[in-house]
Amino acid sequence: MSSSSSQTAYLLLEDGTRFDGEACGALRDGVTGGGEVVFTTGMSGYQESVTDPSFAGQLIVFTYPLIGNYGVRAAAMESDAIHARAVIMREAVNYADAPTAESGWLDWLSENGIPAITGVDTRALVRHIRDKGAMRGGLFAGSVDQTDAAAQVAALPSMAGQDLASTVTPKQAHTVGEDRNPNGPLIAAIDTGIKRSIVDELVARGARVRLHPLSDGADAVLAGDVDAVFLANGPGDPGAVDHVVETIRGVLGQKPVFGICMGHQLLCRAVGLTTYKLPFGHRGGNHPVKDLSTGRVEITSQNHGFAVQTPDGTGRIEGDEPVRWSTDFGVAELSHLNLYDRTVEGLVLPEANAATVQYHPEAAPGPNDASYLFDRFLDRIRTSGSIADVTKQTGDAAAAAAGLQTDSPSTDGASA
Amino acid sequence: MPRRTDIRRIMILGSGPIVIGQAAEFDYSGAQACKVLREEGYEVVLVNSNPATIMTDPEYAERTYVEPLLPGPVAKIIEQERPDALLPTLGGQTALNLAKALHEDGTLEKFGVELIGANYDAINCAEDRDLFAQAMAKAGLKMPASLIVRGTYDPTNHPDHRDAADGEKLPAAQIDAQIVEALETTGLPAIIRPAFTLGGRGGGIARTEEEFRKIVLGGIDASPIGQVLVDQSVIGWGEFELEVMRDKADNVVIVCSIENIDPMGVHTGDSVTVAPQQTLTDRLYQQLRDQAIRVMRAVGVETGGSNVQFAVNPHTEEILIIEMNPRVSRSSALASKATGFPIAKIAARLAVGYRLDEITNDITKATPAAFEPTIDYVVVKWPRFAFEKFPGVDDRLSTHMKSVGEAMALGRTFRQAFAKAMRSRELDETPKIADDATIEELVERIREPRTERYDILLEAVRRGATDEQIHESTGIDPWYLAELRALALGDDPTPSDDAGLVRTFKSVDTCAAEFAAETPYFYSGWERPDADGNARHEVRFSDPPAPSVVILGSGPNRIGQGIEFDYCCVHAALTVRESGRDAVMINCNPETVSTDYDTSNRLYFEPLTLEDVLGVLEVEQQGGKLDGVIVQFGGQTPLRLAAGLEQAGIKILGTGVEAIDRAEDRGAFGTVLDTLGYQAPPYATATSLAGALDAADSVGFPLLVRPSYVLGGRAMEIVDDRDALTDYLRREAGLSPERPDEPTKEIFLDRFLENAIEVDVDALCDGESVWVGGIMQHVEQAGIHSGDSACALPPYSLSDDMIHRIREQTRGMALELGVLGLINIQFAVHGDDLYVIEANPRASRTVPFVSKAIGVPLAKMAVRIMLGEKIGELGLPREAGGQGSLGHVAVKEAVLPFDRFVGADATLGPEMRSTGEVMGVAADFPTAFAKASAAAGSPLPDGGAVFISVTDDDKPGAIEVARRLHGEGFRLVATHGTQQALIAAGLPCDGVAKLQDADGEAVTAVSEIAAGTIALVLNTPTGSGARTDGYEIRRAAITAGVPCLTTVSAGAVAADAIAAARGAGEPTVIALQDLNAR
Ligand SMILES: Nc1ncnc2c1ncn2[C@@H]1O[C@H](COP(=O)(O)OP(=O)(O)O)[C@@H](O)[C@H]1O
Ligand SMILES: Nc1ncnc2c1ncn2[C@@H]1O[C@H](COP(=O)(O)OP(=O)(O)O)[C@@H](O)[C@H]1O
Ligand SMILES: [Mg+2]
Ligand SMILES: [Mg+2]
Fold first, then answer.
1. Three-state DSSP string of B581-601
2. Among residues B191, B214, B193, which one has the least CA distance to residue B203?
3. Chain-chain contact of B516 with A130 (C-beta, under 8 angstroms)
């Protein structure tokens, strides 16, 4: 499965640390790539990751050594393109004959002009990033002089302060799901780089989704018969898109609002919180998130480098109660936390009828434990119910899926 | 939700003796649970009949009962100890079945004992194939099309039979009708699985109608509830397992996914498996994950770990649930070792009320256990088989587990891990592949899976077989075939071909390095070095640095080298730590306590080859002062490495290499005995037929013959005459019938001592003095391998004088050899003569048994000697002597796997075949023997009919046994010759036909046994290996679960035990803490 002739290559980090390997993907054709080097701990779902717009501008290190085992296929695309700038692996596999594969992973990276490296001691690299923080780096052919490489890496912009969402947002608003659900509820989504799975989950539950460029203001977003507003995931620094925060302030209280990932960060900024860069982010499919209002824990899919600052400025929710304070939009509640580092994972604005989560209920890749959030969101839109309990981890959906009776006549639809 | 305060005392049930399908993994999980519960402040009452377990060390529980895992004794313990709760999910199927029985017979209710971990309904739902299928249907989950065939009456399903008792056998016609219906539902081939049996015992794949009928009927007998499930076959689909954990608050996590390289149809226990799964897309994997969680909830396992098995069609992406085990399992031990997430430990905490998010991840010490481990390496598990010990058995792998052990290997890539796992098997002989075998022949040879399939597969690739050919014949996923091709063609770095990569030790940390790991659990991979050319090792040494001692483990479990050795290695680690040094463990067996990262200061999960061990030692030497390596505790495996280690300049602690050689080499050991003036049975060696016949004349028949080149008692046989010797040479030494003059392989010929009493001794020696820990008298005569014989400590009939001589000769040999640590010696007492059979300069299989019986941890004492202490400094009690010297009697009984090997003759001989052992303790020998028999799975009957059929030589002895049993009210039944002998001795006796006399209608011994009218069988083998009626009789007894004694000496002891039990009721149960307090 290994490539015919090997070409040496290396990854150079901004602190001068170098990791050697073999060129693959478009690096074999001389395409290099630089940006922020981040790692993800998911053991499967490589194609979903590299096509997730939230990875724009980043070089992904996969901690799982074997990447490419089941090839690639159209159905696993999270957007129309590969957004990751480059891929770093311990052992790349190009296996086009897997049962559901339409192409080999490395062939596909090459075709799409994405440089990659294999044979890297990724574990040593990850330990380095964990200890020193995510940093800039670039992939280079073995023949490139290290001093030249270092200069190129030094010239890369830093992630903090970068508005990358603007690079992935659509040019014009357009609606998805109209043919399937002509009379379905209309959800206006501010598209900061939305993953296709999110749109699919909403459409699968009967919605029409109108995707807005992030330059659209509140009026544009609320135009027409909008039933709810959705705040999407996206790349870059949430602190660099304050005009979106303004838009959100304009829609809050007008329509129910639900959001994911960057959408969560932006809603938090809209009610006065700040965001900050985590040392190396949360990327993977095994993060435990606890709902402080119910005490339950769910395993979540995560992909973010920035996090929401708590009102007390510590970045951590230490207590066992949701953090409550009042805002321009009424009471706010930081309801969820990440059990790895007690950072913020969810916000609820009961009076403004809004709720967001930092994690990814659409999974892709990762666990589906939270997919009921979409059930509830659509249910609340249809019944004009409160969005405040959309993100509540109650276990009702899980019990129903297992064929068990639940005590409270469930407000959830069956899990998709 | 903190821990429960309404319970104080918790009973834990172990899994009993090691049997196929239930091995050391339950010692690992049970020992972890004991530790955790006591840390939490609970009192633990432990029951396990297996003395060779760490969990039964008296320090692991408040009260430890080495008693039979049967409702009677356990109810008595419950009455005596009054536990508040019973945790049944850590002792395998045995504990689960026992807990179920204790619930059903009202014991738990009577004494107010609550089942924790899994309640009765959940156990039933998971284990009763019918209830399980219903629960799955309700949860919308799919299973293979199936039907239940019931062999017994069940009131809920047969309202027309209200008069029949629950569990009563249904009329044959009714079973037949069900068989016809089942066949229609599933078609052929079909998978037949009995309910509530271990490792698929009694099941199989039926390809023809006749097979179908036969396996269904057999399965009904094997199932304790007389039920079998007949499944549509999905042979060839991918097989996957997920390990799931749930807490009281309904939080659920997946600990690990495991993919079987062998597709559906080969039991997961016999498959080569990989973690994490390699071939599923994320979307499909997440569906498996969702379904596993739904299964867990649907079955209603409240807390703890469970294992869910799936079949997946990779093309249609169809997913079927195969089964779930509502308890920790072999796979959960594997998952724990593969990820670093200690499932049993956490399950124990969950059972007492904690939630996953309230438990800290041991490894990071900073994050909670409520998460899913992610790994950044590949794990391969490889099963270890023992078919060579059971000639004639069906060695095809199927739905019914046949392996006796396993090895696990970790690598940074699949190929690294696979190659390491292959090395870890420690095969005595590599599979033979003829040089001229064609590709087609090789591809055909792996169509039916057998143990050597991957060796052949790799060779077929080397000879040019295509992936398509191999996939067509094996069904193995092409992804693996591509990897195996790359491995076969050698384009992967291995220790011999390193292509710029260096051996690098990485740690197992549950989190792919996302968090700093505290736990020193390492494996080696091959990686590019850093800029200076150094390996990027992650090994962390103690701060401040401490000198270290490396302990070599015993590798995969196999017959002859089992859990006993792991027990000794664990004791070694604990003692080394107590001495202030760092204990460093190297082993590759995922089932064991030695590979629990808590056991040593540093654990290296590596194969036990010289090269791999030296790789570890290199890093250890970089870290500081290496005091030496202990090779005495892992059985033959480390002993074989001793010379190579010494040559590499490594210090061997304890008995030196030269002493090891002098004990192991026959000639050298003969000289030792001559010097000391001790006797060994006369022996000779031969390398040709003529030489062998000459030697036979000088040594004298009967002879015990064995090839010189195989270790561990393989291919040992007793031959009575020249013909048998010639035949042996043909079978085992390569004698060619056409060219009888050509040389053969070398064989040893020993004078076989008939009717000798065998004695085992374990002793400590510090080079100056010797302390005899235990003298064990065997129940079966010499000629039955010491590992398969029952034995008693102290001896029950040896004279004081003989015991004195045994002790003196033990001292003489230990000192002459220069033993530092443990020595095990086997003697044969023949009339007034004492013969030395062999001396093993290492810890023996009996060390744990002796340690428990006498209350002195022998292995720990041996380590203290190796580290420099003298026997006088160890505070040892007086040596135990003969009868009555201990105040109690401990009996060890062996457990044999004949019931799992269709086609194996159930007789004992000089080649060891037992997989495990149990211990019975009582004030007197007969009661201890009865307890041990019951614990081993053949409780002695208290009445009924005894069937006797013995050789002429055995008739005098058998008459005495018969007289005793007749006196105890047994009806005597015998075959013709034996009947006449009994009648001549004045005993009333009914006759039955031998199988071969029967004209089809007559009642034969076999039909009587099968009909359940016989309570006890005494049958001694005629000595010929042929399938005589003796063979049929013994098989019938095994099948019907009737105790079957194959030696007169065992018969006599059993008669005594039956007499002693008469009217005494359930024997007293004794806690080890009380026993050893005396
Ligand atoms: N329907 C089936 N078709 C093909 N193989 C099967 C089927 N059901 C079970 N098996 C095989 O039999 C093995 C044992 O079955 P399982 O139900 O897991 O029993 P056990 O309780 O012994 O683990 C499985 O590991 C699988 O390989
Ligand atoms: N000369 C002998 N006479 C009778 N039995 C013997 C003799 N030698 C060995 N045996 C029997 O064979 C068994 C195995 O032999 P042993 O030399 O101990 O081999 P192993 O290395 O397998 O333990 C012994 O336990 C004993 O029962
Ligand atoms: Mg199974
Ligand atoms: Mg022996």
1. CEEEEEECCCCCCCCCCCCCC
2. B193
3. yes
Q: Are strands B273-275 and B717-719 parallel, antiparallel or unpaired?
A: unpaired
CB pairs under 8 A between A and B: 183
- What residues contact A253, with CB distance under 8 A and at least 6 apart? A329, A351, A352, A353
Query: Bridge-partner residues for B747, per DSSP?
Result: B686, B707
Quote helix, strand, coil % in chain A, to nearest 5: 25, 30, 45
Query: Which contiguous run of DSSP H or E holds residue B1036?
Result: helix B1029-1040
pLDDT tens digit sequence for B69-120:
999 999 999 999 999 999 999 999 999 999 999 999 999 999 999 999 989 9
Tokens of B670: 């003969």
For B615, half-sphere exposure in the C-beta direction (CA atoms, 13 angstrom radius) is: 24
Ligand 1 pocket residue status of B228, Cβ below 6 Å: no
Q: Do residues A261 and A298 touch, judged by C-beta distance below 8 A?
A: no
Distances (CA, A) of A341 to A273, B367, B517: 19, 8, 15
The structure's pTM equals 0.95
Q: B231 C-alpha to center of ligand 4: Å?
A: 45
Cβ–Cβ under 8 Å, residues B118 and B89: yes
Inter-chain CB proximity B357 and A99 less than 8 Å: no
Chain A hits for B513, CB-CB cut-off 8 Å, are 63, 123, 126-127, 130
pLDDT for residue B161:
45
Dmax (CA) for chain B in angstroms is 91
Q: Is the pLDDT of residue B324 over 50?
A: yes
Please spell the DSSP secondary structure of A28-70, one letter per residue. GGT--EEEEEEEE--SS-HHHHHH-GGGTTEEEEESSSEE-TT
Residues 6+ apart with CB under 8 A from B783: B704, B718, B752, B753, B754, B756, B909, B910
Measured CA to CA, the distance from residue B295 to residue B140 in angstroms comes to: 10
pLDDT at residue B883, as a whole number? 85
Q: What percent of chain B has pLDDT over 70?
A: 95
B649 CB contacts (<8 Å, ≥6 apart)? none
Non-local (6+) Cβ contacts of B501 within 8 A are: B493, B526, B527, B528, B529
Which one of A76, A91, A120 has the shortest CB-CB distance to B413? A91
Residues of chain A with pLDDT under 70: 1-4, 406-416
Nearest to B333 by CA among B319, B316, B318, B345: B345
Q: Would you mind telling me the total number of residues written for chain B in this entry?
A: 1078
Q: Which residues of A touch B315 (CB under 8 A)?
A: 99
Cα B91 to Cα B34, B50, B88, B309, B976, distances in angstroms? 12, 12, 6, 20, 45
Cα(B383) to ligand 1 centroid in Å equals 16
